[in-house]
Design brief:
single chain; 32 strands; 7-stranded mixed beta sheet; mainly beta; 16-stranded mixed beta sheet; 546 residues
Amino acid sequence: MKNMTLFDFENGFFGAILFFLYAEIHYRFPGVFSRLFKKEPEIITDVPHRLEPGKKLPVLLFVKDADKYPVILKKMNVDVYVKDKKYTIFNHIFNGEKIQTQFADFLFQAGLPDVTGPVRADIVVEYEINGKIRTCHNDNYAKTSHEPFTVLVDENPLPKSENWYYGDLHYHSFLTSDQVEFGAPLHVTAKMADAMGIDFVAVTDHSYDLDDRWDDYLQNDDSLPKWNYLQETVQKINSEQKKPLLLAGEEVSVGNCQNKNVHMLVIKDKQFYPGKGDSAEKWLKTEPDMSVTEICQKSVESMAVAAHPEITPPFLQRLLIRRGKWQYNDYTVPGLDGLQIWNSEKDRAFRKGIKVWTRLLLDGYRLSIYAGNDAHGSFGRFRQIKTPFTSMKEGIFELFGKAKTIVLVKNGFTLENIISALKKGRCVITDGPFAEFQLLDDNKNVFEIGDCFSQKQGKLVLNVLSTPAFGKIDKVVLYTGSCRTKKETRTYLNDLNTPGSYTFQYEIDLFDLPERGYLRIQVISSNHLQQYLCLTNPVYVDTRTI
């Protein structure tokens, strides 16, 4: 990344202002001392926060900005701590070659001792810069903890039934690279997903990054080298493995009904959609390139989703780059498939997203909900500037694969079938337990999540699964929505006074279904550490044709 000055109006002035919204540790504001600045490349390690049974531990070493600060990697070792016992599980000696590129990545597979449960992983990197040997634990940032990672070595696979597949629908790779943020390489993403039990990943880099030159994120290239690289590399990786599959997409900055910049996920579309309104690439150029309506009209065969729609952007983003939030009129645009209401955390925006979604359902709109994490190459630890020049923040939030979309695909696990099932709403969202249900009519015909049921009575068949990692099942709730009364009724299906278990099967005959409405399920599980949640999409009900 370039060091910018206040006097480079075309590119730098706006970037300097953006520095107070986000920050990049190698940027120094003229005349201001930074506690975070180092004359070193960023040396970052990462591991997945969870491992499927029997998987080795993938260990990522990522070096950024060595084109400005060349470095020689000397060696790396990985120690894991299980309770009070230490195991050295990996050692590697590098070849002594000087790294002088903007990005360099190394991915290793480390065998673990025969243990399950949480383990702590400490990654120590020795490197040489300007003739001096230095050592860092887990990263070389100033003002981070350098504490070991925590990895859950799960004794059970992620809970699901046959033909259900886990995915993360909002993820940024290294193709998102600008004055704000950067992600991880695509081949690393695929390996991490496999280790975590994630079956598919939507790679949704920013539209305003995918149209950039490789060597300058402030300059666009009409030949779209980054977009073309995404398409070609995803196709190559998918041709080499059955799972996980990568879905090429983009997070497009589009204009809402107020002509403010909001974000939309467009997944598996061969056409590139421009969106530079909130890119901060050009001073005072904040008009959206396309509207929500225009994108939905063009992306008929692909998937169009409102990205983290109920997050309110900070004041400076609203002021300087015209960022807004999704409005009710935007959600009702024909062609929108649904809302990514879950963006890693069960926070205020998530709770508002549920309320908006249920209002839309009660108003008769059939929009699905999806989950993703907006992870920028963060698999086991999130790192970001907290206070410019002064402090960093880190934690186990915005991690890849934390909030998951599980999709039902019965006719073959292919990209086309995944997209088709997602568009139909044949999916649930969760950070722990799994739930599926069907409605059966008088003729034993089965209606899955996303289908429309047309009789006034039927049988509900429910299957809920959890594991010790996500705790026993506490609450199973059936929500019945009526478009006539504009209300949901809530029915607890399990006995709240009875200790929970890891499985829950239930059948019930339902009478007097709403003339027009829906049924959906919510499940809560918990262990001694925290609660976990699963929300299903609806089975819709419309008996008006009877």
